[in-house]
């Protein structure tokens, strides 16, 4: 049987890197794309140690660049096949809405939302021609629940959710399922180097300075509760091998119950709970 080909964006770290290794171990051909190939060393070294390097092809891809995606399309024409696309690349833009420059919102949407669309448009013709395929979009609990200080990220993931629902219905006649993976908080770089907080909210002159600082302190303190990203990588491989996958997969301790609670409660009650937690834990002067 011919090997399945999976294209992963942002494969140099976090979920992307772990998924690349897990798929390679499962005998897929992995196109491990990253915007800076020099960051691929850890993936190459680990894949070599595991004896799966021959299943991995490192490729340059900046999902915000139309030219870079065009180059990807040319490369895919040579390979002639993509069975699975994982739109994983992204970062977490933060700050308080009043202070976030529009271009920071634009870059966030260009990456987490439009970047996924750009790559999907490049890959879809190959899937339709073959009459099969699968698209997995890496969403988040932030695609279901708004958080203060994180509105660029939350907006980009809400947009990804809406687009994925539409796309799922558009591609159903072609037997190409679209899946949303919704992790809670996991230990990757996204909360350190992958987090881009607007400068203004971090200055003491900002009216949001103490809110921001205490929010950050609370989040840092809770980081130890973050899940092991391997759980997500293994789950995505399992989803890829499911015959009739669902639209949504929630992953992580407490994530399902939090989303359920938010959906069940009237907004008024939800807001009271959130603000109670914020007041007591973050906004102590
Ligand atoms: N970790 C969590 O708690 C969590 C929870 C829910 C959802 N997620 C989602 O999971 C996905 C992966 O994040 P992660 O947690 O694994 O964080 P990560 O370790 O920071 O990985 C993010 C990856 O995206 C890449 N990337 C960013 N902008 C890019 C661009 N323009 N073109 C190509 N690649 C780009 C990064 O590359 P560079 O190294 O070059 O920046 C990096 O490889 C993201 O979509 C994130 O929103 C994460």
Automatic annotation (TrEMBL):
<dbReference type="InterPro" id="IPR002347">
    <property type="entry name" value="SDR_fam"/>
</dbReference>
<keyword id="KW-0560">Oxidoreductase</keyword>
<dbReference type="InterPro" id="IPR020904">
    <property type="entry name" value="Sc_DH/Rdtase_CS"/>
</dbReference>
<dbReference type="InterPro" id="IPR051911">
    <property type="entry name" value="SDR_oxidoreductase"/>
</dbReference>
<comment type="similarity">
    <text>Belongs to the short-chain dehydrogenases/reductases (SDR) family.</text>
</comment>
<dbReference type="InterPro" id="IPR036291">
    <property type="entry name" value="NAD(P)-bd_dom_sf"/>
</dbReference>
<dbReference type="Pfam" id="PF00106">
    <property type="entry name" value="adh_short"/>
</dbReference>
<protein>
    <submittedName>
        <fullName>SDR family oxidoreductase</fullName>
    </submittedName>
</protein>
